[in-house]
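[09:14] KT: can someone run the structure on this one? pasting the chain below
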Amino acid sequence: MTVVLLILSVITGVFLGKHFGKKEKLAKNLLVLSAGFLITICLNEVFPQVYTSEVGSSLGIFVIAGVLLQMILEALTKGFEHGHFHHHSENNILPMALMVGLFIHAFIEGIPLANEKEQLSPYLLGIVFHNLPISFILGAFLFNRKNESKNSHYPSILIVALFALASPMGMLLGNYFNPNLQPYFLAIVGGIFLHISSVIIFESNKNHNIDWVKIGLVILGVSLALIMHLFHHHPAAGHSH
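[09:31] RB: done, structure tokens below
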């Protein structure tokens, strides 16, 4: 179920991006909505698990490491994670660099899934919700390039396949790690989530004008995540291992 959701989130986003990729406003709105959802999952689900663990007090450095790691990865992806559409018409982004950056990003996010006890955990849905707009932009970039020939779709399909399989592969590897390392991986992913969601929310606020649509989308994303948090059963609350 987890693997199916992860793969479907990428395929669905790429399909929408391929056919509606010229609607940049739609992608931006999806990104802002997902950012509100993601930052709420991060603060209400990921960080509590990190800081209530036995080693929680020493994990701040791993959160910072996650932020720095995402900044490094964005040198490869050129900001695909937070919607830099302007690179579609430029030649300064290499498909190989994009593939490597997105793969590492998704692979690391998949590792903590190995120790998630519920099939539809908030952490999993946070990744799924985040995958949709990224995949939308990826599909728009890969399949709507003006100078792309029929044969060049094959590398594009390879990039999509690797991105779709990255998180499941990370989850597979996570089964081989000691479960006691879970807080460390969650701390790193928490840093990644925090960086991406905050950049999406604040970067698009041009000239510090009030954008009521963006504010509304953030509130909607936060509300969806809070509703999920309120109705989500937390079996490990009150005791750490």
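[09:33] KT: thanks! Helices lie at 2-20, 24-51, 60-77, 95-110, 122-143, 153-174, 182-203, 212-231.
[09:34] RB: yep, looked fine to me
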